[in-house]
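Researcher: I need the complex structure. Ligand is S-adenosylmethionine. Inputs:
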Amino acid sequence: MTMTPSSTGFESGIHSNTEFAQSILAGLTAPQKRIDSKWLYDVVGSQLFDTITQLDEYYPTRTELGILRRHAASLAEYVTDGTALVELGSGSSTKTRALLNALTGLKSYVPIDISQEHLQDAACHVAAEYDWLEVHPVVADFTAEIVLPPPLANAPKILFFPGSTIGNFEIEGAAQLLRRMRRMSGVTAFVIGVDLVKDTDTLVRAYDDTKGVTAAFNLNLLTRINRELGADFDLERFRHEARWNSRENRIEMHLVSTSAQDVQLLGQTIHFAAGETVHTENSHKYTPGQLEGIAGQEGWLVRQIWTDADNLFGVAVLTPDSG
Ligand SMILES: C[S@@+](CC[C@H](N)C(=O)[O-])C[C@H]1O[C@@H](n2cnc3c(N)ncnc32)[C@H](O)[C@@H]1O
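Model: Output:
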């Protein structure tokens, strides 16, 4: 196995506790209280997300994995000498294996994630399983500029962004990410997973499972804020809610205050009215045409959009439009 020497992974401008504190305070003092969904992923959050992916109600993971297993071999046309597979928000790198099994001509794998310990663990497992592959984990926030380890900056690259994580961005944010990735050098293809528009019941159940794992994932944010910022959220007085926003075509996760209450955070008193919510995640659902439109505007050609038989999920293959 080959891993970069650092025990923590290459760090590309990872957040400090100050950034976390500022982001949480700004969000909780806004008229609609909100928390950026990237903060859902501490060690416990990443583990809970993995449990979510195994739930019956959570169709996206098994569906996307099926699509990737079926089509990964056709991505070989984008692999040239020295190609790196660069994955945004790699989590446990579960879907990556479908690509690595099919694309044995790859030279290296660069998993990028904000959840440092989970990333390191996942990278070690991949490095142990694929002894022909160089693995260079990068701890980074992909909403900021990503700096890759020097030997990789100019290498040919396939970008991989599965998990419908692009759906966590508002449409303008998704466009910005596509624009930034278009500026990355050496990209031969960009493979993106998007969850497709479908009936509301299926969508809401995927984000509000009967075992309460998604609820625990959402509420873990408050545990994290209590632990890292010394706040005094009472978890018994908040509940998880998943709602469909038909105007924006998205599932929203909220934490609902079940009573009027005050919470102490970093020397400030944050008041919650009964029923008031903190908006913690968006998960936008796409149509293939909408994805094509946004990608086209940002300088990408859509080569393929693979879907499953039930049109639940789509995996798009983009290439840079140099015309
Ligand atoms: C929805 S999960 C998807 C995980 C995995 N790619 C999959 O398909 O199962 C989102 C992943 O992106 C990471 N993530 C979320 N926001 C991020 C950010 N701003 N920068 C880097 N990683 C982020 C999370 O830690 C998590 O591993």
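Model: Summary of the prediction. The CA atoms of residues 104 and 232 lie 50 Å apart.
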